[in-house]
């Protein structure tokens, strides 16, 4: 077996989702605990999940990703176990960390399923990991819980650009030939409150990813835009805009006849993609007579999986370089103190 490495396990760290109708409300209560989000919004989103039988696609997507990652890691000569823990639903991170501690894991590398930096996608996961370690120790010496580092965000990794560009190309090619050349591309990501956006690189990174993909596909600046979806929170709190549906209405009014919506903010077809895009945005486009295609997500695309292996190899000291394209350097491995601050309260990490 190769090694020994600094790490003795990989930890897929994700959001979690309900796996049946009875899970939906407790899951949403976990997501929104302590968050300034009205109960009406919770109940509205519960209906989105219930319309899919109360089952979120995300947990199966995590299982599929692990099934793809395991052989790819072995192929690269890395024989490390992959554990899996979530923020909001089983398997919950404290249970996973307990298992890891029982198995004798000393130091693990967390693969967080978020390509961009903000409190939700970065520090909140680090807080979750911190609390999970505390739960494992339960008053005993903290040394009993595995130490955990996190891989860098990959918004500007060449493979992330390649995979998403190909998915968008396929959606464009699926449009009627006479509409293809004038088609508009709307890159979308989860909206976040301005209080979170102003203190992170989220919008800057998303813009860079969008720009790099548009450049790759030869889409001129006036034919693409970065927009947001799935706004939550209180109506009076400002969130990142424009909303994808408002944007589709605006480009349609300006004469656009076909649009591709590309959910670059998500690594797989999460509930937000299935509901807010495949249902809401698509319906809106149909009402207006706008030809609409939704580009796919990375999922278990072999190039995406290979990129994740590469990010792991970087941290094992086995990659020849840290690859990044465009105007910015590869993002940091270790988050500085002021990285993605908690906009709601003081952070324990
Ligand atoms: C930036 C970001 C990502 C991308 C980075 C990452 O992947 O982490 C993301 C991913 C996801 N968000 C998800 C689900 C939800 N997000 C919610 C609420 C919120 N998301 C926020 C931001 C983000 N969310 C924010 C600022 C809120 C408001 C409350 C708060 O400040 O935390 C709510 C509550 C209901 C609502 O209000 O919409 C739900 C159910 C799922 C699972 C989907 C599935 O089941 O397939 C995934 C992958
Ligand atoms: Fe979310």
TrEMBL record:
Fe(2+) binds at residues 190, 272. Keywords: Cytoplasm, Heme biosynthesis, Iron, Lyase, Metal-binding, Porphyrin biosynthesis. The keyword S-adenosyl-L-methionine does not apply. InterPro entries: Ferrochelatase, Ferrochelatase_C, Ferrochelatase_N. CDD domains: Ferrochelatase_C (cd00419), Ferrochelatase_N (cd03411). SUPFAM superfamilies: Chelatase (SSF53800). It catalyses: heme b + 2 H(+) = protoporphyrin IX + Fe(2+); Fe-coproporphyrin III + 2 H(+) = coproporphyrin III + Fe(2+). Pathway: Porphyrin-containing compound metabolism; protoheme biosynthesis; protoheme from protoporphyrin-IX: step 1/1. It is found in: Cytoplasm. Its main location: cytoplasm. Its EC number is 4.98.1.1. GO terms for molecular function: lyase activity. Catalyzes the ferrous insertion into protoporphyrin IX. Belongs to the ferrochelatase family. This is Ferrochelatase. It comes from Alienimonas chondri.
């Amino acid at each position: 077996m190769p090694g020994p490495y600094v790490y003795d396990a990989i930890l897929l760290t994700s959001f979690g989702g309900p796996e049946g109708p009875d899970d939906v409300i407790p899951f949403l209560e976990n997501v929104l605990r302590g968050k300034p989000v009205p109960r009406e919004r919770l109940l509205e989103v519960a209906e989105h999940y219930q319309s899919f039988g109360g089952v979120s696609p995300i947990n199966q997507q995590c299982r599929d990703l692990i099934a793809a990652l395991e052989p790819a890691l072995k192929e690269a000569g890395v024989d490390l176990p992959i554990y899996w823990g979530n923020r909001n639903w089983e398997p919950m991170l404290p249970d996973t960390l307990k298992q890891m501690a029982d198995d004798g894991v000393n130091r693990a590398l967390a693969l967080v399923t978020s390509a961009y930096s903000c409190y939700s996608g970065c520090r909140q996961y680090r807080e979750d990991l911190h609390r999970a370690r505390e739960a494992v120790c339960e008053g005993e010496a903290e040394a009993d819980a595995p130490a955990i580092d996190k891989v860098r965000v990959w918004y500007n990794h060449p493979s992330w650009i390649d995979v998403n560009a190909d998915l968008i190309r396929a959606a464009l090619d699926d449009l009627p030939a006479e509409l293809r050349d004038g088609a508009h591309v709307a890159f979308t990501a989860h909206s976040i409150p301005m209080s979170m956006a102003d203190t992170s690189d989220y919008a800057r990174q998303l813009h860079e990813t969008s720009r790099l993909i548009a450049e790759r596909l030869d889409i001129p600046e006036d034919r693409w835009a970065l927009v947001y979806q799935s706004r939550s929170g209180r109506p009076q709190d400002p969130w990142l805009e424009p909303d994808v549906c408002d944007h589709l209405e605006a480009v349609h009014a300006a004469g656009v006849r076909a649009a591709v919506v590309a959910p670059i903010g998500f690594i797989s077809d999460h509930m937000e993609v299935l509901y807010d895009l495949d249902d809401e945005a698509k319906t809106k486009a149909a009402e207006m007579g706008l030809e609409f295609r939704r580009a796919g997500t990375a999922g278990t695309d072999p190039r995406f999986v290979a990129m994740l292996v590469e990010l792991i190899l970087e941290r094992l000291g086995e990659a020849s370089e840290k690859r990044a394209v465009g105007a910015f350097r590869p993002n940091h491995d270790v988050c500085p103190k002021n990285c993605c601050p908690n906009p709601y309260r003081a952070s324990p990490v």
